[in-house]
Amino acid sequence: MKHEMVIVLDFGGQYNQLIARRVRECGVYCEVKPYTTPLEELKRMEPIGFLFTGGPNSVYLEDAPRVDPAIFELGVPVLGICYGCQLMAHTLGGRVTAAQADSAREYGKTETFYDTSCRLFQDLPEQGISWMSHGDYMEKVPEGFALTARSAACPNVAIADEKRGFYGVQFHPEVNHTQHGTDMLRNFLYSVCGAKGDWTMGDYKDTAIRQIREQVGSGRVLLALSGGVDSSVAAALLAEAVGSQLTCVFVDHGLMRLREGDEVEAAFAPWDIRFVRVNAEALFLKKLAGVTEPEAKRKIIGEEFIRVFETEAKKIGQVDYLVQGTIYPDVIESGAGNAAVIKSHHNVGGLPDYVDFKEIIEPLRMLFKDEVRQLGRELGLPEYLVSRQPFPGPGLAIRCIGEITKEKLDLLRQADAIFREEVEGAGAAGDQYFAVLTNLRSVGVQGDGRTYDYAVALRSVNTSDFMTADWTRIPYEVLDRVSVRIVNEVPHVNRILYDVTSKPPATVEFE
Ligand code: XMP
Question: Residue 296 has what pLDDT?
């Protein structure tokens, strides 16, 4: 079945993926395409609507990203957001300039007044907060456009040509700070583009299973299972589609959290697949002995992982297909490629060239994380696996600061389990939360004696994209319970610290 398609035309703004996620949350399938995509290709996708994203440029500059003006002749509605709005105005004969007065330049939460007779704002309140981030000003709007929202500083916060179905907003409806932003997107999709909303994960599951069966035939399939959400859901999907032809290799590097390896294994027991668990703890710890530098740890783990996997693959013999758990944000991001590398995330983009296989299958390639989780639920994976917080490929190795030993890892596993249990029990957890074993040792007093032991740091962050994050305001009583339990139950820990730094300037992980 062919889904209704909306195209998010990407002009390089920071919220592009968020726009696409919001559209899909509204039950409408969309894809993100770079603004350089030829019009013919866009037409072939038969979109029912376009969303033009924000972007860092100014439309009046010579080398600013542009669109083929013929896009406005297709009879397909357009919603331009921020740069997308200015670009539409510029292309259709309006005039955009740099805001002269500081007051016309708007950043942050802004009181905004809407004309609710405009289809974009229908059935919504006439007044609300919107999230602005623009330094340019639409001096003259194009012919045929009405002004449909304003703020104190700006008379044309939104413009609309209802006849042609062209809408532009200077603010960002996709971010949570904009009140009713998702409702505005929904209005655009359903009321303007005439969407019916045919995007559900139940449908996706059935279609994906059918496609996998067609593609794979009677071939043999190999999958590297890390225990993370993406590879687990990919494995479940493949198990459902071609279980008897599937081998999952789960490399347990000994850097997992408490009981995690067993949980992963148990989750796959219901399927009739070949499940190989490689207990490689000793091997990894040997390679990591004496290594303290975070990037060196990542590199060693990444390489060793591939090596172990390769050895197992050779034992299995000829495979036809290799499955990767690539998800849509990886696909979109790998196109950009000029952001500074802060940390090398080893599990993005590199799996063995040297395992002999015919083709790669990436069944989650078009899905966002929330959709992957939903698909996992549809497939019957247990909730603890599906709603699992992200866990880095290098595992506890980058949460055990400095040199890694089995003893330190065991302490960390216990402290981490206590922290997770308590914050989850209290409903106080952020989006990612964990304990870190610092390499700080300090003096304490326990019983009547002096101790000189480890400090455990606790970290919990609230974030939607992991690019920026705020620390979670965990209630003091909960922190107190965690602290008392860890120092009592975990040997060689005599001090508990709570990390109150956001990202930036810190990162989520310590290493
Ligand atoms: P940072 O520490 O960069 O983390 O703020 C952002 C998100 O990425 C995860 N992370 C990793 N994931 N391999 C991974 O697969 C890695 O090497 C790695 N380092 C950080 C981190 O847990 C957080 O969710």
Answer: 96
Rounded-to-integer distance, Cα 373 and Cα 229, Å: 7
Instruction: Report the percentage of the chain scoring pLDDT > 70.
Output: 94
Separation of alpha carbons 261 and 14, rounded Å: 36
Q: Are 496 and 458 a contacting pair, CB within 8 Å?
A: yes
Across residues 371-381, what is the average pLDDT? Answer: 96
| Rounded Cα–Cα distance for residues 39 and 248 (Å) | 42
For ligand 1, whether the C-beta of 170 sits within 6 Å is: no
Q: Which of 30, 118, 154, 172 is catalytic?
A: 172
How much of the chain, in percent, has pLDDT values that exceed 90?
A: 80
Mean pLDDT of 353-371: 85
Residue closest by Cα to atom 20 of ligand 1:
392
- Closest C-alpha to ligand 1, atom 4: 508
Q: For ligand 1, is residue 392 a contact (CB within 6 Å)?
A: yes
Q: How many A from CA of 345 to the centre of ligand 1?
A: 7
Name the 3-class secondary structure at 242.
helix
**Ligand 1 lined by 369 (C-beta under 6 Å):** no
Give alpha helix (H) positions in 280-368. 281-288, 294-316, 328-336
The amino acid occupying position 101 is A
Q: In the predicted model, is pLDDT for residue 251 greater than 80? A: yes
What gap in Å lies between CA 328 and CA 154, rounded to an integer? 36
Nearest to 170 by CA among 192, 150, 144, 190: 150
Residue nearest to atom 16 of ligand 1 (CA): 345
Name which of 447, 441, 438 is nearest 488 in CA terms: 447
Chain centre to alpha carbon of residue 74: 33
- 489 classed as catalytic: no
Give Cβ neighbours of residue 313 (< 8 Å, ≥ 6 apart): 222, 249, 319, 352, 355
Q: Is the pLDDT of residue 443 over 90?
A: yes
